[in-house]
Design brief:
This protein is 28% helix and 25% strand. It is built from seven helices and twelve strands. Strands 3-2-4-5-1-10-11 form a seven-stranded mixed beta sheet, with helices on both faces. A three-stranded mixed beta sheet has the order 8-9-12. A hairpin with a 2-residue loop joins strand 10 and strand 11. The longest helix is centred in the N-terminal third of the chain and has 11 residues. Keywords: Glutamine amidotransferase, Hydrolase, Protease, Serine protease. Belongs to the peptidase S51 family. One of its GO terms (molecular function) is serine-type peptidase activity.
Length: 224
Protein backbone atom coordinates (compact mmCIF):
# COMPACT_ATOMS: atom_id res chain seq x y z
CA UNK A 1 0.00 0.00 0.00
CA UNK A 2 1.40 3.38 -1.02
CA UNK A 3 1.69 5.81 1.88
CA UNK A 4 0.69 9.45 1.58
CA UNK A 5 3.32 11.94 2.70
CA UNK A 6 2.35 14.93 4.85
CA UNK A 7 4.22 18.09 5.79
CA UNK A 8 2.94 20.68 8.28
CA UNK A 9 4.38 24.20 8.07
CA UNK A 10 3.45 26.17 11.21
CA UNK A 11 4.03 29.89 10.67
CA UNK A 12 5.07 30.86 14.17
CA UNK A 13 2.70 29.54 16.84
CA UNK A 14 3.04 25.81 17.60
CA UNK A 15 -0.01 25.89 19.88
CA UNK A 16 -2.59 25.75 17.10
CA UNK A 17 -5.35 23.33 18.06
CA UNK A 18 -6.65 22.40 14.61
CA UNK A 19 -3.28 21.89 12.94
CA UNK A 20 -1.73 20.16 15.96
CA UNK A 21 -4.68 17.79 16.17
CA UNK A 22 -4.39 17.00 12.47
CA UNK A 23 -0.67 16.28 12.81
CA UNK A 24 -1.14 14.16 15.93
CA UNK A 25 -3.85 12.06 14.27
CA UNK A 26 -1.67 11.49 11.22
CA UNK A 27 1.13 10.42 13.59
CA UNK A 28 -1.11 7.76 15.13
CA UNK A 29 -3.19 9.49 17.81
CA UNK A 30 -3.09 7.50 21.02
CA UNK A 31 -0.55 5.16 19.42
CA UNK A 32 1.74 7.97 18.24
CA UNK A 33 5.41 8.32 19.15
CA UNK A 34 6.42 11.89 18.42
CA UNK A 35 10.01 13.11 18.23
CA UNK A 36 10.27 16.83 19.04
CA UNK A 37 13.52 18.36 17.79
CA UNK A 38 14.49 21.63 19.46
CA UNK A 39 17.66 23.54 20.33
CA UNK A 40 19.00 24.40 23.74
CA UNK A 41 18.18 27.68 25.38
CA UNK A 42 17.83 28.55 29.03
CA UNK A 43 14.40 27.66 30.34
CA UNK A 44 13.57 25.48 27.34
CA UNK A 45 11.35 23.23 29.47
CA UNK A 46 8.89 26.08 29.96
CA UNK A 47 8.16 26.15 26.21
CA UNK A 48 7.42 22.45 25.81
CA UNK A 49 3.68 22.64 26.64
CA UNK A 50 3.13 24.95 23.66
CA UNK A 51 4.04 21.98 21.49
CA UNK A 52 2.93 19.04 23.57
CA UNK A 53 -0.38 20.12 25.14
CA UNK A 54 -2.36 19.96 21.85
CA UNK A 55 -0.90 16.52 21.09
CA UNK A 56 -1.85 15.23 24.53
CA UNK A 57 -5.38 16.57 24.06
CA UNK A 58 -5.43 14.62 20.79
CA UNK A 59 -4.71 11.41 22.69
CA UNK A 60 -0.93 11.16 22.42
CA UNK A 61 0.54 9.63 25.58
CA UNK A 62 2.98 12.02 27.30
CA UNK A 63 5.55 9.24 27.73
CA UNK A 64 5.54 8.78 23.96
CA UNK A 65 6.74 12.32 23.27
CA UNK A 66 10.54 12.24 23.05
CA UNK A 67 12.44 15.53 23.10
CA UNK A 68 15.67 15.67 21.11
CA UNK A 69 17.83 18.57 22.29
CA UNK A 70 21.57 19.29 22.19
CA UNK A 71 23.47 20.19 25.32
CA UNK A 72 24.68 23.69 26.13
CA UNK A 73 27.62 23.17 23.76
CA UNK A 74 25.34 22.29 20.84
CA UNK A 75 26.19 18.58 20.98
CA UNK A 76 23.64 15.84 20.40
CA UNK A 77 23.74 12.29 21.67
CA UNK A 78 24.06 10.77 18.20
CA UNK A 79 22.98 7.22 19.01
CA UNK A 80 19.99 8.34 21.06
CA UNK A 81 18.93 10.85 18.38
CA UNK A 82 19.12 8.20 15.64
CA UNK A 83 17.11 5.73 17.72
CA UNK A 84 14.43 8.29 18.58
CA UNK A 85 14.02 9.35 14.95
CA UNK A 86 13.84 5.78 13.73
CA UNK A 87 11.15 4.88 16.27
CA UNK A 88 9.03 7.99 15.72
CA UNK A 89 5.64 7.92 14.01
CA UNK A 90 5.67 11.72 13.79
CA UNK A 91 8.56 14.20 13.70
CA UNK A 92 8.26 17.86 14.69
CA UNK A 93 11.04 20.46 14.37
CA UNK A 94 10.57 23.40 16.70
CA UNK A 95 11.16 27.12 16.43
CA UNK A 96 13.98 29.37 17.50
CA UNK A 97 17.30 30.47 16.00
CA UNK A 98 17.09 29.23 12.42
CA UNK A 99 20.82 29.11 11.70
CA UNK A 100 21.39 26.99 14.80
CA UNK A 101 18.58 24.62 13.84
CA UNK A 102 20.15 24.29 10.39
CA UNK A 103 23.60 23.56 11.81
CA UNK A 104 22.19 21.02 14.27
CA UNK A 105 19.73 18.99 12.21
CA UNK A 106 20.30 19.56 8.49
CA UNK A 107 23.22 17.16 8.35
CA UNK A 108 23.91 13.47 8.28
CA UNK A 109 22.87 11.03 9.54
CA UNK A 110 19.73 12.86 10.68
CA UNK A 111 18.79 14.26 7.27
CA UNK A 112 18.77 10.86 5.56
CA UNK A 113 16.90 9.20 8.42
CA UNK A 114 14.18 11.86 8.35
CA UNK A 115 13.89 11.60 4.57
CA UNK A 116 13.49 7.83 4.82
CA UNK A 117 10.82 8.26 7.48
CA UNK A 118 8.99 10.88 5.44
CA UNK A 119 8.86 8.77 2.28
CA UNK A 120 7.67 5.82 4.35
CA UNK A 121 4.65 7.87 5.46
CA UNK A 122 5.77 9.51 8.71
CA UNK A 123 4.25 13.01 8.96
CA UNK A 124 6.82 15.77 9.43
CA UNK A 125 6.04 19.18 10.93
CA UNK A 126 7.99 22.32 11.64
CA UNK A 127 7.29 25.59 13.40
CA UNK A 128 8.92 28.86 12.31
CA UNK A 129 12.60 27.86 11.92
CA UNK A 130 11.58 24.23 11.67
CA UNK A 131 9.07 25.02 8.92
CA UNK A 132 11.68 26.87 6.88
CA UNK A 133 14.01 23.89 6.90
CA UNK A 134 11.51 21.38 5.51
CA UNK A 135 12.04 22.46 1.90
CA UNK A 136 14.99 21.83 -0.39
CA UNK A 137 15.89 25.48 -0.94
CA UNK A 138 15.72 27.82 2.05
CA UNK A 139 16.04 31.59 1.82
CA UNK A 140 16.33 33.23 5.23
CA UNK A 141 14.99 36.75 5.56
CA UNK A 142 17.42 39.41 6.73
CA UNK A 143 15.23 39.68 9.85
CA UNK A 144 16.12 36.07 10.64
CA UNK A 145 19.92 36.08 10.31
CA UNK A 146 22.78 37.11 12.55
CA UNK A 147 24.40 39.06 9.72
CA UNK A 148 21.22 40.97 8.85
CA UNK A 149 21.57 39.74 5.28
CA UNK A 150 19.51 37.28 3.25
CA UNK A 151 21.02 33.79 3.31
CA UNK A 152 20.45 30.90 0.91
CA UNK A 153 20.68 27.39 2.41
CA UNK A 154 19.84 23.82 1.52
CA UNK A 155 17.17 22.36 3.79
CA UNK A 156 15.94 18.86 4.53
CA UNK A 157 14.55 18.49 1.03
CA UNK A 158 11.12 16.99 1.69
CA UNK A 159 9.65 19.19 -1.05
CA UNK A 160 11.61 20.62 -3.96
CA UNK A 161 9.61 23.27 -5.77
CA UNK A 162 8.31 25.75 -3.20
CA UNK A 163 9.76 28.46 -0.97
CA UNK A 164 8.44 29.24 2.50
CA UNK A 165 8.19 32.47 4.49
CA UNK A 166 7.12 32.39 8.16
CA UNK A 167 5.82 35.15 10.44
CA UNK A 168 4.64 36.50 7.11
CA UNK A 169 2.38 39.40 8.06
CA UNK A 170 4.22 40.21 11.30
CA UNK A 171 7.54 40.51 9.47
CA UNK A 172 5.93 42.23 6.45
CA UNK A 173 7.81 39.62 4.45
CA UNK A 174 6.13 39.86 1.04
CA UNK A 175 9.02 41.60 -0.68
CA UNK A 176 11.48 39.08 0.73
CA UNK A 177 9.46 36.15 -0.62
CA UNK A 178 8.96 37.76 -4.03
CA UNK A 179 12.64 38.56 -4.25
CA UNK A 180 13.57 35.03 -3.24
CA UNK A 181 11.39 33.60 -6.00
CA UNK A 182 12.95 35.98 -8.53
CA UNK A 183 16.42 34.71 -7.59
CA UNK A 184 15.60 31.01 -7.91
CA UNK A 185 14.01 28.72 -10.47
CA UNK A 186 11.13 28.14 -8.09
CA UNK A 187 7.86 29.77 -9.13
CA UNK A 188 5.65 29.36 -6.04
CA UNK A 189 6.05 30.51 -2.47
CA UNK A 190 3.84 30.38 0.60
CA UNK A 191 3.76 33.14 3.21
CA UNK A 192 2.48 31.70 6.47
CA UNK A 193 1.13 33.89 9.27
CA UNK A 194 1.94 33.11 12.90
CA UNK A 195 -1.43 31.52 13.62
CA UNK A 196 -1.67 29.58 10.37
CA UNK A 197 -0.42 26.24 9.11
CA UNK A 198 0.19 25.07 5.55
CA UNK A 199 -0.36 21.36 4.94
CA UNK A 200 1.39 19.77 1.97
CA UNK A 201 0.35 16.30 0.83
CA UNK A 202 2.55 14.32 -1.54
CA UNK A 203 4.50 17.43 -2.39
CA UNK A 204 1.51 19.60 -3.27
CA UNK A 205 -0.69 22.13 -1.47
CA UNK A 206 -3.37 20.26 0.48
CA UNK A 207 -4.99 22.78 2.83
CA UNK A 208 -4.47 25.74 5.11
CA UNK A 209 -5.41 25.59 8.78
CA UNK A 210 -5.53 28.09 11.62
CA UNK A 211 -6.96 31.46 12.55
CA UNK A 212 -4.78 33.48 10.18
CA UNK A 213 -3.82 33.13 6.52
CA UNK A 214 -1.50 31.28 4.22
CA UNK A 215 -0.64 33.49 1.22
CA UNK A 216 0.25 32.06 -2.16
CA UNK A 217 2.90 34.08 -3.97
CA UNK A 218 3.65 33.27 -7.61
CA UNK A 219 6.70 34.61 -9.42
CA UNK A 220 5.88 37.91 -11.16
CA UNK A 221 2.35 37.85 -9.76
CA UNK A 222 0.69 39.36 -6.71
CA UNK A 223 -0.19 37.32 -3.64
CA UNK A 224 -3.66 35.86 -3.37
Amino acid sequence: MVQDNYLYFFGGNPNQSEASLDFAKKAGGKHAKIALLIIYRQGWEEYLPRYTDPWIRAGVQPQNIDVIIPNQHGELNVDQTIHTLQEATGIYIGGGHTETYHATYVKEPYKSIMQEKYYAGTPIAGNSAGALLLTDQVVLSSIDTDSGETIHLHGLGFVQDILISVHYSKWNDAEHLKGSLANTRISTGYGIDDHACLVVKNGRFHKALGEEKVFVVVKNEKSS
